[in-house]
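re: ur msg from earlier - yeah i can do the farnesyl diphosphate complex, just paste it... oh wait u already did. ok heres what im feeding in:
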Amino acid sequence: MTKFHAAFEKLPADLDRNRLPKHVAVIMDGNGRWAKSRGMPRFIGHQKGVDALKNLLRCCKDWGIPALTAYAFSTENWGRPTEEVEFLMTLFERVLRLELQEMMKENVKLRFVGNLVSLPKSLQEEIYKSMEATANNQGIEFTVATNYGGREEIIQATRAIAQLVREGDISPDDIDENLFENHLYTAGLSSPDLLIRSSGEMRLSNFLLWQIAYAEIYVTPVMWPDFDRLQFYKALLAYQQRDRRFGKL
Ligand code: FPP
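and the outut:
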């Protein structure tokens, strides 16, 4: 273990264990720029991005944060060059295949959210296999948004609810926040308390539009492959300095 890792193995003493976010969401931006600035092809940045995500998942477990959600691929990302899209799909599939055993050992409950039916068949198979295998794990809830779009999620929930009304199962008056949430891809998952975005961009990029209504947003200029335990510690320190009022005084 490196000296750096050892220093951050346990929750740093100046973080309050009782005021940690229960759910952290991350927009992992900057993989391409990280690689380019080192004269490397973009795909190396994505590979390093996977390492950073794995380290963050382990860190959440070590520090007692029960849920992590990561934005891996947006509905808009199909617009990237074909080779990059294909690389990412193959990368997701390979990571799932290689990491399933480790996730079982670490007691990770894995869930994919998004429009999964449009993903390559072989990736879908790995996704369903790993979700099924980890369904009863209780160590940490790890959610990966893949082919995910917040607006699309809201529309598909609205459609499902409209169908219930049409079939007479519910009346329009039955539609409330609770019912709506239960029709989102994230049904059953608590809303994120903290949203972290790397590489400095101040945008939500169609991520968890409903769910982050009251999340604290933390943007760091650090590129995603460089987002390590020190950076996460800084994000949590900033989070604990915020005054979360949820619209009250
Ligand atoms: C954004 O960087 C990153 C992505 C679009 C892909 C992120 C995916 C991973 C890190 C892999 C996750 C894998 C699993 C299986 C959960 P960018 O390409 O937009 O970077 P740029 O803004 O510098 O171009």
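cool cool. Residues 82-105 form the longest helix (24 residues). ping me if u need the other ligands too
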